[in-house]
């Protein structure tokens, strides 16, 4: 495995001591005919090697857009990054020229997507799509690339890898396809892996296998993993830290056990309460009142205030609540976080 | 399956097809470049066997490969060429033709009387279905070779001809033969000038009365040029000078007959000097020809006669006055100058000026453009409210028919439409069934320069092209008497009296006489085009 | 009473494909320009007298190639007819032939392509080979037979030309439809719809058609342009419109012969024809983009 | 797959007979008086008419005429055209130049359609996109009847870049102008279809994955997107080749190329049944083969399409 792991000096100025990935006050907006949709409004988080950060939130809260912004595959127009930094090992990727940025993609920072069937090119064999990475990034020969591809399929535990290399995506089951995606992402031994709802399209048993595989591979390679999901259950047993996202902002960030034990933001608390639990069998499930705001018209102040039980006057005015330090290595953007914590 | 790279697939496919496209580059050398030879444009001849070839293109090619018995001088009188002497016994029925000695075919065979007799018999013999067969119908014994089907389309088939030799042809000696006609005809000498009467060498026949396979592609004639290579269909026919030719020797060493499917394409080559002579410049190019060619754009007489026939079997056109009124409504000069840009001249009589006996304006007043009188006469005689002029669409007549209709509409204040028929045959068929397709556009090119060759076929009761059902016994007898008359001058007097009846009855509206409108390149000079639209190969010269 | 907690700005009206499409179309400039142009031409086709009072058939040779004067904005042609009047009056036949022939070809192409693509197997074999046979029939032969046999006396040949174009030009549309149906048939949503008990007809037209429609619409829009232009080729070959029927095709076939001497009688009808083709194809594009959710 | 090809070949034979019969029937319906059609406007003598009617069974019914034609054909004798020329030689004379001309036109059209189609799909709505759209529409709207003579006049006679006409074995260069003119009749449709298909595929998820794999935009388009969007273009190319062969009538006329198109037109005008059917039989074979190749290409391009 390591022979191809030539540590290309992909980017000038990489500082091994700096945090693996640091996103500061990221703003992304989409200029559409119906007005400007502010998909991300100042998201900030960081990631260290070997650590798993879960980004949690309802669909439409900007988590996928954030991931794509990090990878630099946002389609501009209509998507535009208006402010903020994405620092990989100290280097702000937004300042880097596209040609060099491309060398980071899949090489140092990789990504896997939700629906593997449509994410894989239907008209090329799985082997071709895997070997392509080695041929393009490492200039490997056709034979070398093919053997590397087979090795990768073994690693993600796809049976009879040697024969299946020439099969097409539609000949694989949902779980198998997701394993191929993972193999593709890990091909060049990246330091950061962003998984955008990797198991949403899969049933529970396969989900567990995939998450298990991810965790195992992460440990082996001491990789940083950003897990984007809306499923609280998956997060609990995999993530080290959780950032809860709402209307394009990180409203709360904390180690996973603290959040489950004592959430500091009303939205987090509401999310936790809406998880169906065995002991509440037969009772009415609690749901959060209302709908997430349209991104073209995000309410002033704290975006959650129209749906928040604790909302008071200050919550409704600008500026939005800052990230109060609730505890060491833990923040929440709520003026009344103590009240939320207290109960 | 097809490999991973779609690009390799596409590149291979493109390469193969370009290879295929490029490989047939063959002889793209420019035919005009070679020395003292000329390139003349023709359309693809249907046949080249003399007795089967009746279109002008094949006539041109045959004229280079064979030596005619007779040709015409400036006054259009027949003059012996290959024949030494052509004499006729009293009664104009028995003609004796004596050939000039010493002539040989291109394969060395001497030219004898038998060659002519075999060729003419072959042409007349019905099963051979030769296009020019009807030219021999005057010779005695023709009927034995062409038994007619007793009941037309009925079940009975025509009987097989008993013999394939016409009784009227008799060999006197090696260089003389005698032709006996079934009926006296004073001007038979003019008839045998046509290319149908060329001789055929013995080599042409694989057995008695059967043409050898491939002979038509590699003709052997007795003319000033001989075939160089064979007839490349739709491409070209190359002929070169025949060394020991005893007749008048042409100035050029060879001719390439270049075949064109479309006259405009030929004109494009002419302007580009890829083509040396084009005998008929298309009407569409007339507007630019003077500018493109300057004084290399010329005109000369030919026998084309264009007219409109009245369906006299229809009630509305029975009255001659209605016919005269319509004729007076047409301004022939304006159409000739505006539509045909002077390439046609207005016609005011019923035969072509090229024949002796033609009289200027024999039609008289009905052919003069006089809209007011025309409208009066038309309304007095209750002409029909709508006039239709039918024409076959593949002849390029649309523009002048529309113009004529516009004139009739303006003069007679009646509606007039140009009606297209996809094919000439469809028009003919409807006429035979006396359907009302209105006035019919017709044209005629002579076979031989005699008034009779206009009067009989066009206006005779059973004339081949008399589609309008007009017949007059007086007219027929006058034409017959003309044919039998002792001297050509007597024939002409009779034929002119017949023409006067036409002026009275107006079965047709004479419109225009055609002209050869031809052009040549900067490489040639002395270019003349004769009555039959054939280039005079003997005078033609290339500039050094 | 709307729920107070809902942000006022969310549009609560029910959203349908056509609703979205109209929303989309309203904004696109191309849509307005092309539909305006198309409307103008349709108006010209049905009410020529709105644009010119001159009689297109009143031609006198003395005015041959005369320049523009008075009502005749484009001058006079080879026969001395008013080019402007003939172009306006020509719109009727040209559009009539173009639209009808394309409609006919579209319907046949749709059914052949859909059936061949959807049923596959024997049906596909028969229909596809049928398409090959029709492709084999030379265009001119069809035109000659139809114009020869169909048009009685006095008929101006419009039905013959429309039938000729309609019955001979649907093959490429059918082939493109078949290929997109074959591709679309394999998708999961079709299996799902079938599992939900959709009848083949519903499957074909409710589910497969919208997804297989994009390339088909493109080919059809182009076919409209090609058919209007083909009418000129038919007139040139002498099997187009007959009698004194006027159309751009007849004008172009006539003017083409004298283009070097008098380009105007050729340029104007060709420009009108190009503008019509452009208008209908841009309109087709705009509508197709709007109705294709995937291209949103 | 092999069984599929065999089945398709069997179908070809049936289609071949079907096509020849249909065209024979059309020619029969179109037949008024072939003898007169041959003679043009000259009168036809009764004896000549009877002889030709006898030789070509012109007076017999459709079925018997078709039977005569087919019995000859099966013995390899394509028969004689009414003008008396061997149809076999007619085919040999006119097919080569037509194949070269239509292949050249097709390669030019496909290359332009591919290049411009992909580029205008990427730059949807840009000046290039609309410019190319307007240009191809102008080509489409200008009837070939106008385009061919104008092209010949400008490029052939005035500027002299190309020879004004081309002969049967004209050089590659001489055929370039007619090929370009012919290409205009098909390039518009091919380009539009490619543009739509590529635009649609650019939206697909696998394109996002390809970008996420750090592939250069060129590779994303020309490797990943293209192969998914080729099916409509390939379909059209299959159809267009045959159309170019039989439909090049006007272009062949203007450039004096004695190809299949002009021979067909001549055959139809002179109501020459055997000749037209001879040509159409070969044409139908071309269509059949092309469509088989296109269907096989479907399977090659899109693995989800399988033929048993």
UniProtKB/TrEMBL annotation, chain A:
A single GO BP: peptide transport
Single GO MF descriptor: ATP hydrolysis activity
ABC transporter domain sequence ranges: 21-272
Protein name as catalogued: Oligopeptide transport system ATP-binding protein
Membrane-spanning intervals of the chain: none
Signal peptide: none
NCBIfam families: oligo_HPY (TIGR01727)
Source taxon at top rank: Bacteria
Subcellular location: Cell membrane
UniProtKB/TrEMBL annotation, chain B:
Keywords tagged on the record: Signal
GO CC annotations, alphabetized: ATP-binding cassette (ABC) transporter complex; periplasmic space
Protein name: Oligopeptide transport system substrate-binding protein
A single GO molecular function term of this UniProt record: peptide transmembrane transporter activity
BP GO terms, sorted: peptide transport
Protein's organism: Actinoplanes philippinensis
Stored InterPro entries: Peptide/Ni-bd (IPR030678), SBP_5 (IPR039424), SBP_5_dom (IPR000914)
Listed PROSITE patterns: PROKAR_LIPOPROTEIN
Keyword set includes Cytoplasm: no
Domain of life from the UniProt record: Bacteria
Endpoints of the signal sequence: 1-25
Pfam family, one: SBP_bac_5
Domain Solute-binding protein family: 78-465
From TrEMBL, chain C:
Compartments where located: Cell membrane
Boundaries of every ABC transmembrane type-1 domain copy: 91-284
Membrane topology: Multi-pass membrane protein
Parts forming coiled coils: none
GO biological process: transmembrane transport
Keywords: Cell membrane, Membrane, Transmembrane, Transmembrane helix, Transport
Main location: membrane
GO CC terms in record: plasma membrane
Transport found in the keyword field: yes
Gene3D superfamilies given in the database record: MetI-like
Any Pfam family matching the protein: BPD_transp_1
Entry's transmembrane regions: 30-51, 95-119, 131-151, 157-177, 212-230, 266-287
InterPro entries reported for this sequence: BP-dependent_transpt_permease, MetI-like, MetI-like_sf, OppC_N
Record-stated family: Belongs to the binding-protein-dependent transport system permease family.
Protein name: Oligopeptide transport system permease protein
Organism for this UniProt entry: Actinoplanes philippinensis
Taxonomic path: Bacteria, Bacillati, Actinomycetota, Actinomycetes, Micromonosporales
TrEMBL record, chain D:
Keywords: Cell membrane, Membrane, Transmembrane, Transmembrane helix, Transport
Source domain of life: Bacteria
Membrane found in the keyword field: yes
GO CC terms: plasma membrane
InterPro entries: BPD_transp_1_N (IPR045621), MetI-like (IPR000515), MetI-like_sf (IPR035906)
Residues of the ABC transmembrane type-1 domain: 95-298
Bilayer topology: Multi-pass membrane protein
Protein family according to the UniProt entry: Belongs to the binding-protein-dependent transport system permease family.
PANTHER family referenced in this protein's UniProt entry, alphabetically: DIPEPTIDE TRANSPORT SYSTEM PERMEASE PROTEIN DPPB-RELATED, DIPEPTIDE-TRANSPORT INTEGRAL MEMBRANE PROTEIN ABC TRANSPORTER DPPB-RELATED
Protein name (record): Oligopeptide transport system permease protein
Species for this entry: Actinoplanes philippinensis
Organism taxonomic ancestry: Bacteria, Bacillati, Actinomycetota, Actinomycetes, Micromonosporales
């Amino acid at each position: 495995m390591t022979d191809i792991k030539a540590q290309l000096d992909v980017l000038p100025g990489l500082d091994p001591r700096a945090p693996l990935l640091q996103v500061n006050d990221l703003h992304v907006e989409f200029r559409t005919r119906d007005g400007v949709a502010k998909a991300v409004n100042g998201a900030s988080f960081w990631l260290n090697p070997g650590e798993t950060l879960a980004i949690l939130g309802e669909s439409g809260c900007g988590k996928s857009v954030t991931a794509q912004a990090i990878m630099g595959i946002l389609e501009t127009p209509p998507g535009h990054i208006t402010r903020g930094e994405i620092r990989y090992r100290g280097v702000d990727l937004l300042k880097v020229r596209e040609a060099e940025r491309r060398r980071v993609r899949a090489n140092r920072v990789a990504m896997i997507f939700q629906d593997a069937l449509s994410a894989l090119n239907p008209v090329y064999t799985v082997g071709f799509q895997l070997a392509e990475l080695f041929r393009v990034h490492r200039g490997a020969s056709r034979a070398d690339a093919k053997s590397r591809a087979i090795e990768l399929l073994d690693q993600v535990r796809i049976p009879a890898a040697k024969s299946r290399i020439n099969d097409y995506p539609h000949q694989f089951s949902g779980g198998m396809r997701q394993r191929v995606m993972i193999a593709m992402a890990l091909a060049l031994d990246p330091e950061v892996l962003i998984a955008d709802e990797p198991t949403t399209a899969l049933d529970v048993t396969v989900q567990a296998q995939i998450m298990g595989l991810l965790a195992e591979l992460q440990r082996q390679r001491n990789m940083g993993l950003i897990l984007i999901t809306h499923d609280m259950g998956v997060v609990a047993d995999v993530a080290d830290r959780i950032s809860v996202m709402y209307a394009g902002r990180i409203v709360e960030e904390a180690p996973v056990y603290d959040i489950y034990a004592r959430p500091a933001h009303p939205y987090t608390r509401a999310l936790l309460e809406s998880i169906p639990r065995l002991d509440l069998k037969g009772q009415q499930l609690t749901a959060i009142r209302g709908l997430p705001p349209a991104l073209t018209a995000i309410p002033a102040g704290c975006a959650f205030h129209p749906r928040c039980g604790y909302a008071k006057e200050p919550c409704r005015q600008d500026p939005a609540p800052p990230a109060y330090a609730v505890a060491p290595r833990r923040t929440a953007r709520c003026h009344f976080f103590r009240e939320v914590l207290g109960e | 399956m097809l490999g991973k790279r779609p690009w390799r697939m596409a590149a291979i496919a493109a390469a193969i097809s370009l290879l295929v496209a490029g490989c047939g580059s063959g002889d793209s050398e420019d035919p005009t470049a070679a020395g003292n030879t000329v390139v003349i444009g023709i359309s693809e001849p249907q046949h080249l066997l003399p007795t089967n070839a009746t279109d002008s293109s094949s006539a041109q090619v045959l004229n280079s490969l064979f030596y005619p018995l007779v040709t015409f001088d400036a006054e259009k009188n027949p003059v012996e060429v290959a024949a030494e002497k052509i004499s006729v016994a009293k009664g104009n029925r028995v003609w004796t033709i004596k050939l000039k000695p010493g002539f040989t075919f291109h394969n060395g065979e001497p030219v004898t009387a038998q060659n002519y007799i075999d060729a003419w018999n072959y042409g007349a013999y019905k099963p051979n279905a030769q296009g020019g067969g009807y030219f021999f119908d005057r010779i005695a014994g023709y009927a034995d070779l062409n038994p007619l089907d007793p009941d037309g389309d009925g079940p009975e088939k025509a009987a097989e001809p008993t013999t394939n030799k016409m009784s009227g042809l008799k060999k006197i000696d090696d260089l003389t033969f005698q032709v006996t006609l079934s009926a006296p005809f004073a001007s038979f000498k003019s008839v045998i000038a046509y290319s149908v009467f060329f001789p055929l060498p013995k080599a042409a026949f694989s057995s008695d009365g059967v043409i050898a396979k491939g002979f038509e592609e590699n003709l052997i004639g007795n003319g000033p040029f001989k075939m160089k290579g064979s007839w490349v269909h739709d491409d070209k026919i190359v002929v070169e000078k025949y060394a020991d030719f005893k007749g008048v020797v042409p100035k050029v060493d060879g001719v390439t007959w270049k075949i064109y499917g479309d006259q405009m394409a030929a004109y494009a080559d002419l302007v580009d000097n890829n083509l040396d002579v084009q005998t008929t410049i298309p009407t569409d190019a007339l507007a630019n020809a003077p500018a493109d060619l300057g004084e290399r754009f010329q005109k000369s007489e030919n026998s084309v006669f264009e007219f409109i026939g009245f369906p006299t079997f229809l009630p509305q056109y029975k009255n001659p006055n209605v016919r005269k009124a319509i004729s007076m409504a047409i301004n022939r000069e304006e159409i000739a100058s505006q539509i045909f840009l002077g390439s046609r001249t207005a016609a005011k009589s019923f035969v072509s000026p090229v024949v002796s006996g033609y009289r200027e304006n024999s039609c008289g007043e009905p052919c003069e453009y006089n809209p007011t009188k025309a409208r009066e006469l038309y309304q007095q005689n209750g002409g029909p409210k709508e006039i239709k002029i039918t024409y076959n669409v593949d002849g390029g007549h649309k523009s002048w028919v529309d113009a004529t209709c516009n004139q009739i509409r303006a003069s007679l204040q009646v509606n007039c439409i140009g009606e297209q028929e996809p094919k000439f045959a469809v028009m003919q068929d409807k006429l035979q069934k006396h359907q009302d397709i209105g006035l019919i556009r017709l044209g005629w090119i002579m076979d031989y320069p005699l008034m009779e060759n206009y009067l009989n076929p066009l206006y005779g009761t059973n004339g081949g092209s008399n589609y309008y059902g007009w017949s007059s016994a007086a007219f027929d007898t006058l034409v017959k008497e003309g044919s039998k008359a002792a001297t050509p001058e007597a024939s002409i007097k009779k034929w002119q009296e017949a023409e006067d009846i036409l002026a009275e009855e107006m079965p047709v509206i004479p419109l225009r006489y055609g002209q050869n409108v031809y052009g040549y390149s900067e490489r040639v000079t002395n270019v003349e085009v004769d009555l039959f639209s054939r280039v005079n190969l003997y005078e033609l010269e290339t500039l050094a | 009473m709307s729920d107070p907690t809902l942000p006022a700005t969310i549009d609560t009206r029910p959203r349908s494909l056509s609703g979205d499409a109209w929303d989309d179309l309203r904004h696109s400039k191309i849509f307005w320009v092309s539909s305006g142009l198309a409307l103008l031409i349709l108006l010209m086709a049905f009410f020529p007298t709105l644009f010119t009072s001159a009689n297109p058939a009143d031609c006198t040779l003395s005015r041959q190639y005369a320049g523009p004067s008075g009502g005749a904005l484009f001058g006079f042609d080879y026969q001395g007819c008013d080019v402007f009047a003939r172009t306006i009056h020509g719109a009727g036949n040209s559009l009539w032939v173009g639209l009808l022939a394309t409609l006919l070809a579209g319907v046949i192409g749709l059914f052949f392509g859909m059936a061949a693509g959807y049923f596959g197997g024997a049906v596909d074999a028969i229909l596809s080979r049928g398409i090959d046979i029709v492709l084999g029939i030379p265009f001119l032969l069809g035109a000659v037979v139809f114009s020869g046999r169909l048009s009685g006396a006095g008929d101006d040949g419009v039905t013959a030309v429309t039938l000729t174009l309609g019955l001979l030009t649907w093959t490429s549309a059918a082939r493109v439809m078949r290929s997109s149906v074959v591709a679309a048939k394999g998708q999961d949503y079709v299996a799902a719809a079938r599992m939900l008990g959709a009848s083949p007809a519903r499957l074909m037209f409710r589910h497969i058609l919208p997804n297989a429609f994009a390339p088909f619409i493109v080919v059809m829009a182009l076919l409209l342009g090609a058919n209007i232009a083909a009418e000129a080729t038919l007139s040139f070959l002498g099997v187009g419109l007959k009698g004194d029927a006027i159309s751009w095709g007849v004008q172009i076939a006539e003017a083409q012969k004298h283009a070097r001497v008098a380009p105007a009688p050729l340029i104007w009808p060709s420009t009108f024809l190009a503008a019509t083709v452009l208008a209908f194809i841009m309109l087709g594009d705009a509508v197709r983009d709007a109705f294709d959710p995937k291209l949103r | 797959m092999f069984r599929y090809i065999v089945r398709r070949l069997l179908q070809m034979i049936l289609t071949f007979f079907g096509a020849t019969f249909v065209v024979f029937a059309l020619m029969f319906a179109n037949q008024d008086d072939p003898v007169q059609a041959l003679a043009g406007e000259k009168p036809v003598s009764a004896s000549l008419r009877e002889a030709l009617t006898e030789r070509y069974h012109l007076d017999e019914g459709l079925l018997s005429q078709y039977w005569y034609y087919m019995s000859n054909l099966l013995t390899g004798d394509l028969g004689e055209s009414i003008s008396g020329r061997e149809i076999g030689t007619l085919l040999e004379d006119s097919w080569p130049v037509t194949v070269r001309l239509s292949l050249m036109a097709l390669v030019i059209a496909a290359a332009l359609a591919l290049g411009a189609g992909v580029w205008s799909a990427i730059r949807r709505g840009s000046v290039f996109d609309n410019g190319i759209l307007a240009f191809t529409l102008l080509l489409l709207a200008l009837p070939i009847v106008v385009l061919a003579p104008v092209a010949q006049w400008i490029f052939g006679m005035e500027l002299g870049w190309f020879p004004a006409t081309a002969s049967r074995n004209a050089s590659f260069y001489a055929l370039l102008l007619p090929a370009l003119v012919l290409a205009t009749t098909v390039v518009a449709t091919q380009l539009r279809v490619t543009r739509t298909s590529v635009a649609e595929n650019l939206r697909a998820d696998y394109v996002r994955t390809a970008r996420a794999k750090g592939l250069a935009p060129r590779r994303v388009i020309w490797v990943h997107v293209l192969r998914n969007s080729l099916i409509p273009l390939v379909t059209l190319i299959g159809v267009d080749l045959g159309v170019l062969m039989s439909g090049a009538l006007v272009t062949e006329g203007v450039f004096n190329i004695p190809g299949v198109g002009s021979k067909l037109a001549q055959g139809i005008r002179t109501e020459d049944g055997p000749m037209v059917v001879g040509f159409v039989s070969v044409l139908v074979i071309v269509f059949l083969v092309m469509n088989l190749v296109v269907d096989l290409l479907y399977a090659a391009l899109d693995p989800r399409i399988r033929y048993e």
